[in-house]
Amino acid sequence: MLQQWKPDPTFYPSPKMAIDAPIEELAYVAAPRDDGKPDAMCVVDLNKASDTYGQIVSKLELGVRDEIHHFNWNACSASLCPYAPHPYIERRYLVVPALRGSNIYILDVKEDPKSPKLIKTLEADEVESRSGYTRPHTVHCGPEGIYVSALATAGSEEGPGGIFLMDHYNFNILGQWEVERGPQSLSYDFWWHLGYDVAVTSEWGYPAMIENGVSLEDLGERKFGHKIHIWDIRHRKNIQTLDLGDDYQMILELRPAHDPTKAHGFVNAVLNMNDLSSSIWTWYKDGDDWGIQKIIDIPAQAPENPDDLPPALKDIGMIPPLVTDHILSLDDKYLYVSCWGTGEMLQYDVSDPFNPKHVGTLKIGGITKSYPHPSAGPVSGGPQMVELSRDGKRLYFTNSLYVAWDNQFYPEGANGWMVKADVNVEDGGLELDPDFFVDFGESRAHQIRLQGGDSSSDSYCYP
Amino acid sequence: MDTVSWLSYTLLGVFHGINPGMGWLFAVALGMQEKRRSAVIGALFPMALGHAISIAVVVFAIALAQRQLPEDVLRIACAVVLFGFGTYKFFRARHPKWVGMRVNFKDLTIWSFLMASAHGAGLMLAPLLLRMPAAEASTHTHHTMATMTDSTVMLLSAVGVHTLSFLVVTGIVAVIVYEVVGLALLRKAWFNLDMLWSIALMIAGIVTLFWKH
Known about the structure:
The complex is a heterodimer.
Chain A: H1 15-18, E1 26-31, E2 38-45, E3 56-64, E4 72-73, E5 93-97, E6 104-108, E7 117-122, H2 124-131, E8 133-141, E9 146-153, E10 162-166, E11 173-176, E12 190-193, E13 198-201, H3 207-210, H4 216-220, E14 227-232, E15 237-243, E16 248-256, E17 264-272, E18 278-286, E19 289-298, H5 311-314, E20 323-328, E21 334-339, E22 344-349, E23 357-363, E24 372-373, E25 377-378, E26 386-388, E27 394-398, H6 403-409, E28 417-423, E29 430-439, E30 448-450
Antiparallel strand pairs in A: 1-2, 1-30, 2-3, 4-5, 5-6, 6-7, 8-9, 9-10, 10-11, 12-13, 13-14, 14-15, 16-17, 17-18, 18-19, 20-21, 21-22, 22-23, 24-25, 26-27, 27-28, 28-29
Chain B: H1 3-18, H2 24-34, H3 37-68, H4 71-91, H5 105-118, H6 126-139, H7 145-181, H8 184-188, H9 193-210
């Protein structure tokens, strides 16, 4: 394969420069299913001038009951990192991990971006035997290859989960990433501070704790994750573990500052066992050590009619916010927080990462609430996977968390949808675009990736 | 050594210095991370040292081989290795796998040594080296201690001249990018120097075959 003569135009040295990237025209959306039909990668038209604006323009079917999850590009702006620059690799393949099926699909979007082609399938057996892990979850393009996190050890289906590496030219699995794991066993998300040679990992649960819906028994025994781990990337070893305390269960999405000279980031704790609140925490470098501090509490809400609550919440009588995703704008200014349970999307100004200001709220869906969309009317599910354009002006989100959990918290049905909100980037504020409601029908709708890159696809080595 | 040789060592130093993968880009990034120009300047010296060591290893290896192998055999071997390596790099996009921004003097020296070695920076000098001692051999019929010392000094001078020009060019580019041009350069003006580099290796292979004194 002949190389390119110019760097891929979608690579930006710094997040500041990426903010000026052209407006995205397509979104790739993971659409798992629960009805025995195959999961699919859907392409959504985002071009306002197009006749098919806000519609699904193609669907590529993948495996049945695969639960395709946090897919990402084969290459991104991290290819410009100064210590091993290789800017001539193309951002053209989507690496799609199946969280339940453990397969990994490689899709090529170059020839026709509106119609991805499946060019390679890494079957579960191969993924497990080569990586030593099972249940691949999150993909990030790193400075020297593709990193994939996974929930558990292959075979045992329990800990430790961890990270494995893939070659970004031929997609071979290169094996386990960690050299010295330390106390880490539960696994979920990971990301890094490339300017500090530090990676951060978070904790969810082992497959048996999540695959039939959240195990309330394990939750009662506080068995879910409540720590994050700090790693030395160069030596691939755990250098510190930060415990949020077992009152906090399920520590999920890691959003480090995009600016590589900043050493802080945000993570969500899904459930406080004492009052069902969710919280956002800031981790930060503190001299030679790292610290973590809670910055936002989001309380549970009372339902209008407790009889409408799903069985899992009947005894409790409250609606937990279930903050299960959030996204940080490329200028590190705004954090958008998905409250999947209470049907809210919250916007915070986190310019001062220890003193967030709540500047915007948008309501749609929610358990027993079903806040309507301006053009589509009442909807099922609530705000879940959220993605932001590089200029920070368009916020896209979907409503599915994980098929079994959708069924548990939204038993009346969780037909997939994707919506778009326009953002006031000056003072804060969110408004749903009435012309944009993508109906996925019986499919669920999960992770979104924007063509050319978005606010969680790329890592940068320059400020 | 003649003027052509000195000039060639210098120009190859310029060529190596311009390549972002050899040093200046990392120096700029370190300056930006630390937010001070002295971090850019400070990074240049270990980079030059690592580059010099990598070059010296190849230079002395070839010099040693010259004492052991018939000239034509060595010439053909070098040409094949250069042309083959260049062709391989041209068609197969690969890059060294280094991860790490928090680097000290030793780390940067090792990094630079690895980058120069992985790119075959020293190999590129082979045609010049093979051209040189052929002239020596015609004037000295047998090797004495004196000629060995002479040639060592000459080889060291070659490495020195090359490295000095590498250091000057890397330094100038790094400071200009850091202070004036900025990172937009990486998007606009960066074309595939790795491809040009592979072509240079192939050319060096051909030159090795035919460029005799």
